[in-house]
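ok here's MurR/RpiR family transcriptional regulator:
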Amino acid sequence: MRVPVSILDRIRDGLRSFSKAEHRVAEVILRDSDTVSRLAIKDLAAAAQTSEPTVMRFVRRLGCDGFPDFKRRLSQDVAIASMFVFSDDDAPPQKPDDVAFKVYDTAAQALAYAYAQRDSAALEKAANAIDTAERVFCMGVGGSSANLAAEAENRLFRYDVHVSTIVDPYRQRMAAGLCTAKDVLVIFSVTGRPASLVDSAEAARANGATVITITRPQSDLAAMCTVLLPLDIPDHERHVQIPHRSRYGQLFVLDCLTTMVATRRLEKSAPKLRRLRAMLIAHHGPTSQQPIGD
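and the structure:
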């Protein structure tokens, strides 16, 4: 996969090596990249007082396939840059109290969305599938989804569920290919678009496995699952340094699911949980109401 490189950065880096005509083209672009992203090649050439072939040579020198490719990549640069530019009255919170309120409000909204979207019948079906599964594979990619997959394993293993986390896209496909009707996949994805997750869900389901997804309805991943736990949390946050609120919703769904599994396996897992508690007490002494494994 070709790593995208900022066109504007390439232009800035190459200013000293451009010819006089190319330098004029570069100055026009850097002066108003938003407007240039909507110009025809003849208009850019006129603004830079040069010819269309010179503009074409310039964009190819930047690594573009042609002028349409240059405009597309320039538009992406403009859009990304706008995410980091704020007016004085729309600046990111910086004071501790402002940051705390922003994070609290973000979490509260996400939990409200997740609660409103809960599907009791789907939760019941998912919990039953995990409870009776021979193996459970928890999957996710990227940021919060991969972390939630690991958290799902952490929650489930103590209830004597044979569970493992797979966040490597290659191994996800391999595990899906090894699945049988006795296995369960639990897949986390905010968008429902990552190819490795969609492919794994399709392969596992073809092998008879139960595929549980915590993702956006109507997504590619949702179309491949057996049990959908819907989660679609809008996030119009312009301040990109504030964490995406969907992870709070994912955690809510996971807590509901693992609690239901725990209640089904309480008789079987209670003696082992008592042994775990005894081991922890022997390790660091008695504590009051400490979570197992904290």
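+1. Residues 97-283 form a domain with the Rossmann fold fold (CATH 3.40.50.10490).
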